[in-house]
Structures are given as structure tokens and as C-alpha cells.
Amino acid sequence: MTLFNHAAIAGLNNLELLVYNYAIKNHDAVMYMTIRELAEAAGVSTTTVLRFCRKLGCDGYSEFRVRFKLYLSQAEPLPANFGTGEIISFFNSVNNPEFDTLLNQAVDIICHSERIIFVGASTSGSMAKYGARFFSNMGKFSNHIDDPYFPVNNDMAKNALAIVLSVSGETPEILRFASQFSLHHCKVMSITSNDNSSLARMADFNISWHIPQMRISGNHDITSQLPVVYILETLGRKLARKLA
Predict the structure, then answer these.
(1) Which of 49, 87, 90, 165 has the fewest CB atoms in 10 Å of its CB?
(2) Which candidate, 194, 224, 225, places its Cα nearest to that of 207?
């Protein structure tokens, strides 16, 4: 079993995700760090690091370092400074039957919904528009909302499924949308990088993806959307096969 599989990462809490994100972004240094050094660098306690190791199936930190080194050695060599380590880690984490089953369950929900409404803001708004067009191309009419002030009413929510996209799962406007759809008895499916987020907890069904969030100037989110594109396209293709 791969070290960073989806089921294991999905079970990490917020503090343990700090360790995961630091390890992925600083893998060359982590291999030579003591547990105290890693804890200090990630801003957590040594107890959190130990819990993180055990949730990945390691008996302790020493075994984690050995398996982490093996994990890195098995990865394809890639150009330096390309930022692909996080992407490789994501694809490794979803390349398993558990994640495939999760996507199949999502497709069943989509099939039983009369129409799909994709919701997102900022960059996730662009992904919502892409998702709506992709699903429509696959034979399931969908539309999108990227206006944070768009009104939600009973007619639009009836027999619909709202697929809500958010990197953090904590954007106030997005949480408002999720709450309004729920109040109108519309099912909510979330796609977010944080399965402990408010959005994930509010949703009827959640698909989480795990990749370090990146911001510049403290505010501008430049986190890669490749995992979102992969999830949307995989759902769309599974859906097309089911509708055929």
C-alpha cells in the first residue's frame, strides 16, 4: 500500500495535514530531520507527528522516514522547481479502489438528480463553469453559479444537486450557498481540499483532494486546480458511461 493513499490522508486532522503539507513541500530536508525538528518546522507537537505517522500505517517516526525515502525513490524524476511533487502525491493518493468507489458513489447521486448546479467563487468559480460545460457535453444538463449574490429559490433547487467547489471549504459566500441549498431541500455535494472544513461537514456527500494550499501576498490563492479538473473529468466520464 502506498504511503500517501487517499484513505489515510482523508483521516488526517488539521494539525496532521500541516505535517503532511510540510513533508511534501520539503521532502529533501525531511528525510534527514529528527522528529523534534519536523515538529518545530511544521508548527506542531511531536505527539502530532507521531499520530501522523501512525495514521499512515507506520509504527513510528523511524519507519515513516524509511518508507518516505522509498516513496520518493519510486517517483519519476522530474524537472527541478516545477512544483510537481504535490501533483504526484495527489495522483498516488487517488490511484486506489477506495477513491474509485467514492467517485462511483458520487456518480450514482448525480444520476438520480434531475439537474446539476455547479457553485464556486474566484478560481473555483472558473472550475464550476468548466464542470457545468463538461457535464453538459457528457449528456447531463448542468449550469453554474459564480456570482456570490445569486439568489437561491425553491424552483431552481427542486430535484437538483448542487456541486459546490472550494479549496478551503471556509469561504463565507460559498458556505451561504451551501446553507441556502440545504434549506431548500437540495442535496449538496462538496469538492474541497479540506474534509474537516465547514463545507465538507455541511454537505450530504464530500469528495476531498489533498494538495498544499499556496498563497502569494498572503491573500491570493494560487493552489493548483489540477486535482479538481481530474475529479470533474473522471466523474463526467463515469457519468457518460452510465448514461449510455
Answers:
(1) 87
(2) 194
Closest CA to 7 of 55, 60, 72, 71: 55
In this structure, the strands spanning 215-216 and 220-221 are antiparallel
Residues in the chain, overall count? 244
Closest CA to 121 of 164, 185, 79, 181: 164
Give the residue ranges of the chain where pLDDT is below 50. Answer: 76-82, 217-218
Q: How many CB atoms within 10 Å of residue 191? A: 30
The residue whose grid cell reads 445569486 is 150
pLDDT of residue 1: 52
Q: Output the 3-class SS for 82-151.
A: CCCHHHHHHHHHHCCHHHHHHHHHHHHHHHCCCEEEEECCCHHHHHHHHHHHHHHHCCCCEEEECCCCCC
According to the model, what pLDDT value does residue 238 have?
95
What is the Cα–Cα distance from 64 to 60, expressed in whole angstroms? 6
Domains observed in the chain: 4-73 (1.10.10.10), 96-241 (3.40.50.10490)
Calculate the CA 217 to chain-centre distance.
23
**pTM score over 0.90:** no
- What secondary structure letter does DSSP report for 41? H
- Predicted local confidence at residue 158, as pLDDT: 85
